[in-house]
Amino acid sequence: MLPVNQAESIILDLIHPLDSQLDSESIDLSAATGRILASPVTSQLDFPHWDNSAMDGYAVRYADVQSANEQQPISLELVEEIPAGYQPQKTIKPGQAARIFTGACMPQGADTVVMQEHTKRQDNRVLILQAPKPQGFVRHQASFYRAGESLLESGIQLGAPEIAVLAAAQCTELTVYRRPKVAILSTGNELVTPYQLLQPGQIVDSNQYALTAWVTLCGGIPKVQGIVRDKPDALKQAIAQAILAADIVLSTGGVSVGDYDYVDEILAQLDAEIHIRSVAVKPGKPLTVATFPPPSQGNKKGSSHPVLYFGLPGNPVSALVSCWRFVQPVMKKLSGLPMQRWKPRFINAISRSELKSDGRRESYLWGQLQLVEGKYEFKLAGGSHSSGNLINLAQTTGLAVLPVGQTLIPAGEMVQVVSVCF
Ligand code: AMP
Ligand code: MG
Q1: Which of 10, 178, 300, 313 is least buried, going by the fewest C-beta atoms within 10 A?
Q2: What distance in angstroms lies between residue 323's CA and the mean position of ligand 2's atoms?
Q3: Are 46 and 141 in contact (CB under 8 A)?
């Protein structure tokens, strides 16, 4: 049985990130949410695109108004009104000004905006009641970004702010990493789908649904292979097919030492290299990690890397906890995220609950990781923490870690927590 940190480093060494050239695709901005840039983005537009006003007010020549004050206001002739979106037609000459609104283009000749609150309108003239700062309230062309400079680096995941930047810079065609393909199969004679009438002794295959959801949330493409019976031939065929379909294969069940646990045997028959058979973790323990040489056939395009196989425990709690702990960093590394985003991180949190373990294996207790008044807190999920209880997994956002040898963390003490959000 391997300690958790050893298992983790073996696993992370086995996965190769997607290749920014061979494993990339071109997509439109409208479909880019959540995707990861495979090449840097550069815009041909300055930002701001042109000098514009940061205020509702009056565009003036600073030299005209530098001495203005309440006692001796300066009167200027208004020659034009410039709403946002309008191209100014006039040049502001000495003694003149233009009415201007936020975001509107600065007219030629003017270099400063006086905010409306420091003025008084008199028909087609304006009184300047207070001297502005030179170039005040003007957003200068290219002051935030100059055309041709790097706008967003490769490896950046595109969320709302990045999408805003790309849209403003009119970068509508993007090169992103392809989404990793993850094959998912459930093994077990007892399994039925959530849509089938449950007969005595049968168990609903929740793992398939849980892992499909998890892969989707990680930005991967789930390749659902369905339920496979505990029959060596069926299993062999299903695994062989899964390898052709995916970068990563996740199977659940059949990796313990029971009479119907065939997965390891079949992996060996298929010439997989088995790197890990069990990890000193709770819940979890049986965890098979293997690699297959890159398939020479099938519908694979892109770079050629071994397929990483995870034989996860069948128990739904163990399956998901193993996935969060061991497969999530792999998905991130594979996806093209930089190291600081995929290296597993622990968050120091105050435990709001008493946390217990038998101290024999590294234990993961599920619950909610929350930010409360600027500090992280961990609240243990209510109900039984038996690995057979899947019901209280709902709403999990963090896993509290009790290292080997530690049997108790009293409420109010600090605990290390793994965030399960991608
Ligand atoms: P196994 O690892 O195959 O011995 O399975 C361990 C436990 O997990 C057994 O109680 C199984 O019935 C249950 N189990 C196995 N696979 C699944 C699955 N896909 N969905 C839900 N429960 C499962
Ligand atoms: Mg089984």
Answers
A1: 10
A2: 18
A3: yes
Residue 195 structure tokens: 């849509």
| Ligand 1, atom 10: closest residue by C-alpha | 315
List pocket residues of ligand 1, CB cut-off 6 Å. Answer: 186, 188, 190-191, 203, 205-208, 252-254, 256, 258, 313-316
| pTM > 0.85: yes or no | yes
Mean model confidence pLDDT for the chain: 95
pLDDT on residue 387: 82
Coil, strand, or helix at residue 404?
Answer: coil
Q: 321 phi and psi, to 5 degrees?
A: -65, -40
Cα–Cα distance between 203 and 92 in angstroms, integer?
80
Cβ atoms of residues 213 and 241 within 8 Å: no
Going by their DSSP bridges, the two strands 181-187 and 41-42 should be labelled as unpaired
Q: Is 219 left (phi over 0), alpha (psi -120 to 50) or beta?
A: left
DSSP 70-101: SSS-EEEEEEEEE-TTPPP-SPPPTTEEEEE-
Question: What number is the average pLDDT over the span 119-123?
Answer: 96
* CA distance to 76, 329, 381, per residue, from 325 (Å): 69, 8, 18
Is the pLDDT score of 4 beyond 90? yes
Helices (H), 336-371: 339-342
Token pair belonging to 156: 């950046």
Mean per-residue pLDDT, 240-263: 91
What does DSSP say about strands 346-351 and 375-380: parallel, antiparallel, or unpaired? Answer: parallel
The predicted-structure confidence for 396-411, as pLDDT tens digits, reads as follows: 999 999 999 999 999 9
Going by C-alpha positions, the residue among 331, 312, 329 that lies closest to residue 419 is 329
Q: Per-residue pLDDT averaged across 366-379, rounded?
A: 96
Smallest CA-to-CA distance from 180 within 300, 29, 26 is with 300
Cα distance between residue 45 and residue 348, in whole Å:
43
- Distance (Å, rounded) from C-alpha 291 to C-alpha 184? 16
